[in-house]
Write a structure and sequence with these properties.
heterodimer; A: alpha+beta; 2 domains; six-stranded mixed barrel; about 20% strand; B: alpha/beta; Rossmann fold; six-stranded mixed sheet; four-stranded antiparallel sheet; 7 helices; globular; transmembrane (chain A); Permease (chain A); membrane (chain A); ABC3_permease_C (chain A)
Chain lengths: ~400, ~240
């Protein structure tokens, strides 16, 4: 019996039991659908976060006190502005080092209030981070040196507080003190779920006085090229350790961040795929079950086929092909629905979803393998039926 | 009808034992038999006499516990399963009491089924199946399904299926058992004609003396043994058989 004959025979058998075939396939369809969609969401989330990290700027090194480990509470900072000056000398180019002192504060314009992240920083921020100014000007060196009460607003803050009005030159109250708006940043989106458009930047010196804090949270250093990142990180942390013997300092680079985030999200995607894979496996058990029922139901047919000259392997092939057709057709339908579903999710919701070819190949391969694996036992049972007994069966 | 070479069927001391719930059942206890090419024999006997078991052995559906069986000169005991299947496909045609047609399949495809396992192409299968159906007078029923046909027609489809592969031996197990007398007579007439024209050996199992009378040789079985065998002479048209 040729493969074509066997295929035609199996298709005919599936067609005859349309409803049962469809219901059996449903298990596989749902499994494959789940694999494709969940992997698409996992991959989409990873792509999105990588895009956000890259969107910060290029060749950035974040210098923070303590050792960075995932899940650990941030270390109490000991760094102050004197240390920033020290790092500037170590790096050599003062314009490539900036500072950050953050606090959540309420800001107010007239009766409109908003809770925002107030960041004390300096004129070098825009040299290091990708942070274009849409209106007005960024912070200047003079602002920092003379502790001016000036602020540059994130785009969302400007919208919330001033609406249609031009904020430049207007007053904004930050933590009870009045500031003059000198600039508004262009929209940059979010990083790690925090919108950078909800920030207000003020001179770090002003921030220290306003909030009563001497310590800074961290520094950012801009390397001149990708090859400079690692040597410069080592140089800066070594210099700080020399200044504070016994203390730890960490340099976080975008590459390291991307690596960590990538591996965490890769793991997440793997877990999602594995959960979806379990449902595919359950679908396979359903196929096995139905094939066993089918073999029992068609015992007389099997006996007859053997009497007419079907060999054991002809009967085995017939039932195995039926099982594999069930799972592969189910797999294809699941892939189509999964791709459609992922595209719909990406288009209609905030959830990022990006379809990966490997999830499709994997889902199809696994569904075919599930058909073979779960089809073999029923098919062998069919192939081994004794024709005399099978012909007598009712 | 001269037969040259090996007989169609040759059995020597065939025995078949079963284990039924741990109890040994001797269905056949040493049956020796020769059926020549083109012969027409009826195996008769009460139920439980072993005639169905013998039929299954002759049809290569089962293997004997002991004894030798040659079909068309081939010793079955040495054949692996796959070759046994091929022998069933090429040398033997089966007709069953309950027809055993595939219910969702047309007459034409039912008849063509054995040729699928012979590896023939679709067009040739269909041509041969059509010819076989025409030879049993069902040229007008090619695309009917079994449920759309009478019992007699269904059994004729089954006969067409048995002879589409041009076997040496046609085995019929109570071929008229499920038919009314009219349809039964039609079926028997076809078997008579096939035997006479085609030179195909026909062995049928029956309870029915009238059916058995079609055969030129009667083999009476009882308790797993041949009680009486008024052949293989040919020409004794069942005159001595009681009802």
């Amino acid at each position: 019996m040729s493969l074509r004959e066997a295929l035609a025979m199996a298709l005919e058998a599936l067609r005859v039991n349309r409803l049962r075939s469809a219901l059996t396939m449903l298990g596989v369809i749902i499994g494959v659908l789940a694999v494709v969609v969940l992997v698409a969401i996992g991959t989409g989330a990873k792509d999105e976060i990588e895009r956000q990290i890259s969107g910060l700027g290029t060749n950035i090194i974040l210098v923070v006190p303590g050792r960075i480990t995932l899940g650990a509470a941030p270390t109490q900072s000991k760094l102050g502005l004197a240390d920033v000056a020290y790092v500037r000398r170590v790096v050599g180019d003062p314009s490539k080092v900036t500072v950050s002192l953050q606090s959540g504060e309420t800001v107010r314009v007239g009766r409109t209030e908003a809770f925002v992240t107030v960041i004390g920083t300096d004129q070098n921020l825009v040299n290091i981070f990708e942070r274009p100014v849409a209106k007005g000007r960024p912070l200047s060196g003079t602002d920092v040196d003379t502790r001016r009460r000036v602020a540059v607003l994130g785009s969302e803050v400007a919208d919330r507080l001033f609406g249609e009005l031009d904020p430049i030159g207007r007053q904004v109250t930050v933590a009870g003190a009045r500031f003059r708006v000198v600039g508004v940043y262009a929209e940059v989106g979010q990083t790690f779920g925090l919108s950078r458009d909800q920030e207000i930047h003020i001179p770090v010196t002003t921030a220290q006085r306003l909030l009563g804090i001497e310590r800074i949270n961290g520094m950012a250093v801009g390397a001149s090229g990708p090859d400079e990142i690692d040597p410069l990180s080592d140089k800066v942390t070594a210099a700080l350790r020399e200044r504070y013997p016994g203390e730890q300092f960490s340099a976080v680079t975008q590459t390291a961040l991307l690596g960590t985030v990538g591996s965490v999200l890769g793991m997440l995607t793997g877990v999602l795929a594995a959960i979806a894979g379990i449902s595919l496996l359950v679908g396979g058990v359903g196929v096995s079950n139905i094939m066993l029922v089918s073999v029992r139901e068609r015992t007389r047919e099997i006996g007859l086929r053997k009497a007419l000259g079907a060999r054991q392997r002809d009967v085995l092939a017939q039932f195995l092909i039926e099982a594999v057709l069930l799972t592969t057709i189910g797999g294809l339908v699941g892939i189509v629905l999964g791709v459609g579903g992922s595209l719909a999710i990406a288009a209609l919701t905030e959830v990022p979803a990006s379809i990966t070819w490997w999830s499709i190949v994997l889902a199809f391969g696994v569904s075919a393998a599930v058909g073979v694996f779960f089809g073999v036992a029923p098919a062998r049972r069919a192939g081994r039926l004794d024709p005399v007994i099978a012909l007598r069966a009712e | 009808m001269t037969s040259g070479g090996a007989p169609a069927i040759e059995a020597v001391e065939l025995a078949r034992r079963y284990q039924l719930d741990g109890v040994a059942v001797e269905a056949l206890r040493g049956v020796s038999l020769r059926v020549g090419e083109g012969e027409f024999a009826a195996i008769v006997g009460p139920s439980g006499s072993g005639k169905s078991t013998l039929m299954h052995l002759l049809g290569c559906l089962d293997r004997p516990s002991s004894g030798v069986l040659r079909i068309n000169g081939v010793d079955l005991s040495r054949l692996p399963d796959a070759e046994l299947a091929e022998l069933r496909n090429r040398t033997i045609g089966f007709v069953f009491q309950s027809f055993h047609l595939l219910s969702r399949t047309t007459a034409l495809d039912n008849v063509a089924l054995p040729l699928v396992y012979r590896g023939l192409g679709r067009a040739e299968r269909r041509a041969r199946a059509r010819a076989a159906l025409e030879s049993v007078g069902l040229g007008h029923r090619l695309h009917h399904r079994p449920a759309q046909m009478s019992g007699g027609e269904q059994q004729r489809v089954a006969i067409a299926r048995a002879l589409v592969g041009e076997p040496k031996v046609l085995l019929a197990d109570e071929p008229t058992g499920n038919l009314d007398s009219g349809s039964g007579a039609e079926v028997m007439a076809i078997l008579d004609r096939l035997n006479a024209e085609g030179g195909m050996a026909v062995v049928l199992v029956t309870h029915d003396a009238e059916v058995a009378a079609h055969a030129r040789r009667q083999i009476h079985m009882r308790d797993g043994l041949i009680e009486r065998d008024d052949g293989p002479r040919g020409g004794t048209s069942g005159g001595g058989v009681r009802v």
